[in-house]
Amino acid sequence: MRILVLNGPNLNLLGRREPEIYGRQTLSDIEGLLRGRANDLGVEIAFTQSNSEGALVDAIQAHADWDGLIVNAGAYTHTSLAIADAIQATQILTVEVHLSNIYARERFRHRSFLAPIVWGQISGLGYHGYLAALDALHRRLSDRATA
Ligand code: DQA
Q1: How far apart are CA 103 and CA 97, in angstroms?
Q2: Atom of ligand 1 at shortest distance to CA of 72?
Q3: Domains of the chain by range and CATH?
């Protein structure tokens, strides 16, 4: 089972970026936690972070035959039809994650282009959201494999 973790713009700044909103963990802290959990579950995991929309689309296309995707598209969540189209085109089972609760913030963050086309969304659990997404994908994909 192969799962890609994709992080969008400014998430490379985690730890320093508005820690009261996004937490004190760096992206590499979060990736380390996910790597450990993936190891326990026997899941192959890979990480990509980019600040550019096209690179995120390219990463999704390059992993089209992978089993699952955990995506935090950052601000592109609220603007990017291209990222939503890439996920829909590949049909990869996807969980959308946001560290902050986007529905408790500015109105422009309430709309996600991804939400209507992903399996599910986790918003507001901080870095725990990524771990919850990994567990959920692992369970769902395991169920699928035995069905
Ligand atoms: C975010 C929420 C977005 O609105 C914001 O632009 C981000 C991070 C989150 O993880 O809470 O960059 O996706």
Answers
A1: 13
A2: 13
A3: 2-146 (3.40.50.9100)
Half-sphere exposure of 35 (CA within 13 A, CB side): 8
User: What distance in angstroms lies between residue 46's CA and the mean position of ligand 1's atoms?
Assistant: 21
- pLDDT per residue rounded down to tens, the chain (147 residues): 999 999 999 999 999 999 999 999 999 999 999 999 999 999 999 999 999 999 999 999 999 999 999 999 999 999 999 999 999 999 999 999 999 999 999 999 999 999 999 999 999 999 999 999 999 999 999 998 776
Q: Which protein residues are within 6 Å of ligand 1, measured from CB?
A: 10, 72, 74-75, 77, 98-100, 102, 109
* Ligand 1 centroid distance, CA of 145 (Å): 33
